Each structure stands twice: as C-alpha cells, then as structure tokens.
Amino acid sequence: MRIGQWTQSDSLWDKFSQHTVMPFIRSFSCSVRTLYRRFKNGEFDQSKLPMQGKRKPNGHQERRGKQAFKRNIAERETDYASFETEFGHLEGDTIVGVNHKSAVITLVERLSKVIIALKPEGRKAIDIEKATNTWFQSVPKNLFKSITFDCGKEFSNWKNISNTNDIAIYFADPGTPSQRGLNEHSNGLLRKDGLPKEMDFNQVNQDFISSVASKRNHIPRKSLNYQTPLEVFLSYVNEEQLSRLI
C-alpha cells in the first residue's frame, strides 16, 4: 500500500516509526493520530508498528521473582534535583530469549535515548553483575550518574555494581513499567529490530547484539528534533570522554 512516495516494502518504512517517517515523505496529508488510527482499523499492517500494536492488558500483575532490599525510585528525586534535564541517567532491564534460557541487558540514556545492549553469560544475578561491570570498565568514569532498574531479582547484586562503578542505583515500583517507560519502549524496538522472544541469545555474540542496538541509535527520532540518539549522546560528551569511547 502506497503512502506518499513510499510503500510498506521500502527500507525507510521498515526502519522508522510512522511519525518519524513523516518529515521525509512528500505528498503526505494525514496527522500522526489519523495514521495510527488507520493502522488500528486494519487499513495498514499493524505488525509494522514498533510495538506491533501489543500492550499488556489493564490489571496485568508481575509474577517474576523480585528482590526485597533496594533503593526506591522516590529517593532519586531527592538525590538528583535536575534529574529530568540532566545527562547521564540510565534506565535498565533485561529481555529474555526463547524458553527463558538466555537474556540481554538493556540500558538507555534518558536524554539522548541511546540504547546499550549487553550479553551476559546467563540470567543469574552474578551474570548480570559481571557483564555490567565489564561494560562500565570500558566507558569514562562518572560519565553516567544513575541507573533505574526493573525490580527483578536478576539485579539483586545491585550494591556490588553501584560500589564498583560509583553509580547510584534505584528501582522502579513493582508492576509500574511506566516509571521506566523509555526503557520499556526501547526493549520493544530491539525485539522488532532483531532480538525477538523466539531467539536463543546464547547462539549470538556481543557484536550481533551491539549491531541491533546500533541500528536503532542511528535512526532519527521526532522527540530529538529528528537527530539520531547517537548524535545527541555525543553532544554531551567532551573530547577526553570521547577518546575513551571510540
């Protein structure tokens, strides 16, 4: 089905969300709301949407294991008064592969929306800790200020991560993914771009996982004034920090 000068089979359509494509399309005459409504009505293929039209139903209850002793997200506002406008705050989670036998750690920087995807050796807390610490060793010290994690028990070694890397760690309230909305949305994009639930992440390497995140980091975002997440991220990094990243 043709929309303006592009069809659903075109690469631009496949890579970008619908409202991101709009500024690059000629002869386009409907609003974002109208466009999404037409998807909902079945005029277009809903599977092309970033989240494929899927949402958890109202009343959904989290049944995964949780860990009790943690710093609540409420403390974050006290510790970082400029949290909403300050660079360097991450949201974190894991996405799980087929049969719940493998996982990928996902981190998202809130201002730039840059996605970092890491492959741990397993799903246990010690695996998450090792992979996270290894990654932090490769980035400039104190570039990141905090992480807000999902409250799953895979992050129960959070104190070790915090102390080793000198970073504050907080946890969202149970059953409230909206407190880490950017991370949840980014996870959906990674699923769409190459890390589906049906994949065994043990069968792919870090380079592949990084390439999936890199693809998304190079796509312009409407919320970033049509800059890419990588462009925005680099605008907050000084030359000394940049030399350690590349």
From TrEMBL:
PANTHER family: TRANSPOSASE, TRANSPOSASE INSI FOR INSERTION SEQUENCE ELEMENT IS30A-RELATED. GO terms for molecular function: nucleic acid binding; transposase activity. One of its GO terms (cellular component) is cytosol. Residues 73-237 form the Integrase catalytic domain. One of its GO terms (biological process) is DNA integration. Gene3D superfamilies: Ribonuclease H-like superfamily/Ribonuclease H. This is IS30 family transposase. SUPFAM superfamilies: Ribonuclease H-like.
